[in-house]
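Might you be able to check the backbone structure tokens below? Thank you kindly.
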Amino acid sequence: MTSVTSLFAPVETDLCILTENLKNLVGARHPILYAAAEHLFGAGGKRVRPAIVLLISRATMLGQEITPRHRRLAEITEMIHTASLVHDDVVDESEVRRNVPTVNSLFNNRVAVLAGDFLFGQSAWYLANLDNLEVVKLLSEVIKDMAEGEIQQGLNRFDTTTTIDAYLEKTYNKTASLIANSAKGAGLLSGVSAEIATDLYYYGRFIGLAFQIVDDILDFTASTEALGKPAGSDLISGNLTAPVLYALEEKPYLEVLIEREFAQPEDIEQAIALVMESRGIERSRALAAQYAETAVQRITQLKPSESSKALVDLADYVLSRLY
């Protein structure tokens, strides 16, 4: 299995610069916010989103150095992602993420909400300073999509009538929109054609969907230690993901357990067992594979390079996390 470190080798130096810049962008004027940022940006995330922005930047600027605006877009992308995680953890009352305490558990909910707001505000300010209206529009839409996705998830908790289409729309809003629009934004900063910009958008969209579906499978199949959060936590909180929605088609009793919100002592163990016995995991895996394959088809126009190869390999990496 390819490690994420070797996968991102073409932009390894860029990612090191990014991590330092992120801490500086938040600034040391606010000790608690700086502590929160240092905690977040040092929490050992995979940096998948900024890595995609940097790989696309390099793949579309062959023979030239990427610009400070490309780097700034990668930083903005990680800031928006991190701000959304901070808010998610407050909404979900999470105590750990990536095996480290969340901002809300280290400080409190009030500080966590304000830290998330501050990061969104900072990202908007730096976005405006890119002086590229089309990229500003793309990333502004992402922030709207993320909020909409969180609302959709909140309204559909424990709702067994949720469809796969509704799940995919929510997943696009919460996860794939940022990857899709920042991928397109990187291409626009490189001056690619409208056609290639659209292809880059769809590459990000499909990679983002595959990535989240795989995460939703791992919520059932990976250990708590590997996940960095309790296994089955999505189901416990009433967030019905692809494996559950597919399992509901086969296991009618699962609907009973979900609709009573796992009120009985053995309910959650029973629900997880029903999902595991069904074809829910298998069908979700096939869906993720289909999206990963479609993503790769969208970047065949890019000239061969280390960076374009890494973008192709990323699709394999996303799926390999299941094995």
